[in-house]
């Protein structure tokens, strides 16, 4: 990862499978990641505009939406015109492969402006670009009203409207002579396409989007911007299952992970349940089709790549996490309103996940990860325990066998975990990160312990029991709220006092947004509102510095007066779990706990109202619009809901 081009200084427009990545200078020069992409291939690397023989002076470059960037430059083309610019050049760059170049004559005289656009590409895959193997630019040919490039893997073309006066393939140039009367505006539009394809049609910009258009209001105006940006980014990251286009799921993040990552897709779909259950259903169906079948110990597993776990543990199997998240998402989606027909259709896949869990644990107490001789990770036990408890509830609700055995194992695991995974010390103790082969505890305190607080939603507005007892939960809350873990902007991946701490380490000290949001939700549910409120406020403050578009992670440097969070140069932004975390944070403030099968919804708001009054509209509970408001006194009131939905107690 150290050789990846930096992403923190770039403008990344996303409407998958399209990307447009721009540097701070505005011009696409072909350096680093710059260019237009489709499906991970760079269709156009270079797009440099010159007006009257000069490059416009960039005065602003900013995102206007998840899929659009606006770049404004100025020029002085009239002699003796003073310090004011004569020509304003605006470029609207879109992830759909369009760039609109608009010139405005700000003078009182007519102008005749020569405009040149220099184009070039290598048609390289983003992986090759990241590793420095992209190769030289390809020769161009004149094509229609623009230029075309071809390679062994395909081709791309740029068409222009209006057609250029000259198209020079050898130099990769398109030229116009544009007449602008005083105060007039004219534009040139470029369209970048792979050979043989039409305009980009994205899931998130259609009427069939699976996400409800939620909005926030209240005392803190940043919450409205945070939610609006999050929903926008989630739309931009939506993908269709190629073989089943009615099913959609979220890509992990741009620019590096623009495809399916099972564990992240399930985690993000779970956090977005307040926006409806359609994304959860599509994600579950897509992953059910990947589930391993046939004989062997891996039967029922949902495959996933390995994930680096830092310096103290070997890489983790994300397939284990995905397999355990599957029944949890299905069970909670049912509580939020997933239709019984869809739940029943997905139940066999969830049963196979739970059967894999029982088989892999066997006669033991814990689930190792990876299963053969690996460490016994704390977070894996949290995932497994939650899957067993919620899975048993799901099986019972549908008259399926196996629930009793799952509950018995979960109870056995709870009793053992509270001794085996707890290290006593003078400060009150701490959970161990993992048990090494042989049973030796690894004492490093990190953010993976937040999964112990994420116990899962049962019926009647109740959360499932967790692996920790009350005293241990209280101590964990104290640890997570301490300066060693709370950087002031969010939760560090590894405590600042731990050996090997690195504020930029993506598993050894960086703030991981998803885990911080889980900590806020878990602490609030357990009644530790002060610690939850501090982490929540820090993350909202950090989001403001990132233009309300949270990256998947950023440096865990300690906050101080006048400081700002440090970006991680290789973080995905937008990222599905980071954008979905905003949904979890805001709905945690309102404490929404639905039970659609029982036609009830329970509200357990954060009583301290750390961000003042907040209203949430456009949510969905029990397949109907839902709106809630929390006052400055921490009192919640439902403002819109399904007619037959009752308020639980």
UniProtKB/TrEMBL annotation:
InterPro entries with a match to the protein in the record: 6-hairpin_glycosidase_sf, 6hp_glycosidase-like_sf, GDE_N_bis
Signal sequence range: none
Residue segments, region Disordered: 195-218
Pfam families documented for this protein: GDE_N_bis
Gene Ontology process terms (BP): carbohydrate metabolic process
Putative glycogen debranching enzyme N-terminal domain: residues covered: 20-191
Protein's name according to its UniProt entry: Glycogen debranching protein
Species per Swiss-Prot/TrEMBL record: Streptomyces collinus (strain DSM 40733 / Tue 365)
């Amino acid at each position: 990862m150290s050789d990846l081009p930096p992403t923190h200084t770039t403008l990344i427009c996303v409407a998958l499978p399209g990307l447009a990545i721009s540097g701070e200078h505005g011009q696409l020069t072909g350096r680093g990641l710059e260019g237009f992409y489709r499906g991970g291939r760079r269709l156009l690397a270079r797009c440099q505009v010159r007006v009257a023989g000069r490059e416009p002076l960039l005065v602003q470059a900013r995102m206007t939406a998840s899929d659009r960037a606006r770049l404004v430059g100025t020029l002085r083309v009239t002699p003796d015109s003073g310090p004011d610019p004569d020509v304003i050049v605006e470029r609207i760059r879109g992830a759909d492969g369009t760039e609109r170049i608009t010139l405005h004559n700000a003078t009182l005289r007519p102008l005749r402006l020569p405009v040149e656009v220099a184009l070039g590409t290598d048609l390289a895959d983003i992986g090759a670009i990241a590793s420095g193997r992209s190769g030289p630019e390809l020769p161009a040919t004149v094509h229609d009203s623009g230029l075309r490039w071809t390679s062994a893997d395909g081709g791309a073309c740029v068409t222009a409207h209006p057609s250029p006066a000259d198209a020079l393939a050898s130099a990769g140039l398109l030229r116009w002579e544009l007449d602008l009367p005083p105060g007039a505006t004219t534009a040139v539009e470029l369209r970048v396409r792979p050979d043989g394809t039409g305009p980009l049609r994205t899931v998130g910009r259609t009427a069939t989007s699976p996400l409800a258009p939620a909005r926030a209001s209240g005392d803190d105006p940043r919450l409205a911007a945070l939610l609006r940006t999050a929903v926008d980014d989630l739309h931009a990251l939506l993908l269709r299952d190629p073989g089943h286009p009615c099913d959609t799921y979220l890509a992990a993040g741009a620019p590096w992970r623009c495809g399916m990552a099972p564990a992240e897709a399930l985690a993000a779909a779970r956090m977005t349940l307040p926006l409806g259950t359609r994304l959860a259903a599509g994600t579950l169906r897509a992953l059910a089709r990947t589930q391993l079948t046939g004989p062997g110990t891996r039967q029922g597993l949902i495959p996933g790549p390995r994930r680096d776990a830092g310096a103290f543990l070997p890489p983790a199997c994300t397939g284990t996490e995905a397999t355990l998240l599957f029944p949890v998402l299905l069970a909670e989606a049912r509580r939020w309103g997933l239709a019984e027909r869809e739940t029943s259709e997905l139940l066999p896949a969830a049963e196979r996940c739970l059967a894999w869990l029982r088989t892999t644990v066997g006669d033991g107490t814990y689930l190792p990860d990876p299963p053969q001789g690996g460490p016994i990770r704390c977070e894996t036990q949290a995932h497994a325990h939650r899957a067993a408890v919620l899975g048993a509830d799901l099986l019972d609700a549908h008259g399926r066998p196996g629930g009793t055995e799952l509950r018995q194992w979960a109870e056995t695991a709870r009793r053992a975990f509270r001794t085996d995974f707890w290290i006593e010390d003078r400060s009150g103790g701490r959970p161990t990160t993992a048990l090494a082969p042989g049973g030796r505890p690894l004492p490093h305190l990190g953010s993976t312990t937040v999964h112990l607080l994420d116990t899962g939603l049962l019926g009647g507005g109740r959360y499932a029991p967790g692996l920790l007892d009350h005293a241990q939960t209280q101590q964990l809350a104290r640890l997570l709220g301490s300066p060693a873990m709370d950087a002031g902007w969010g939760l560090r991946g590894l405590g600042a006092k731990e050996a090997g701490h690195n504020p930029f380490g993506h598993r050894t000290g960086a703030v991981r947004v998803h885990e911080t949001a889980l900590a806020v939700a878990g602490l609030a549910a357990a009644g530790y509102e002060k610690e939850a409120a501090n982490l929540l406020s820090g993350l909202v403050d950090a989001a403001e510095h990132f233009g309300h578009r949270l990256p998947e992670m950023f440096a865990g440097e300690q906050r101080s007066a006048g400081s700002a969070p440090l970006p991680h140069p290789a973080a995905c932004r937008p990222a599905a779990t980071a954008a979905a975390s905003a949904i979890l944070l805001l709905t945690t403030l309102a404490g929404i706990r639905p039970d659609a099968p029982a036609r009830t919804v329970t509200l357990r708001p954060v009583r301290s109202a750390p961000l003042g009054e907040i209203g949430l509209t456009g949510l969905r509970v029990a397949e109907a619009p839902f709106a809630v408001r929390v006052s400055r006194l921490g009192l919640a009131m439902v403002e819109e809901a399904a007619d037959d939905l009752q308020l639980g107690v």
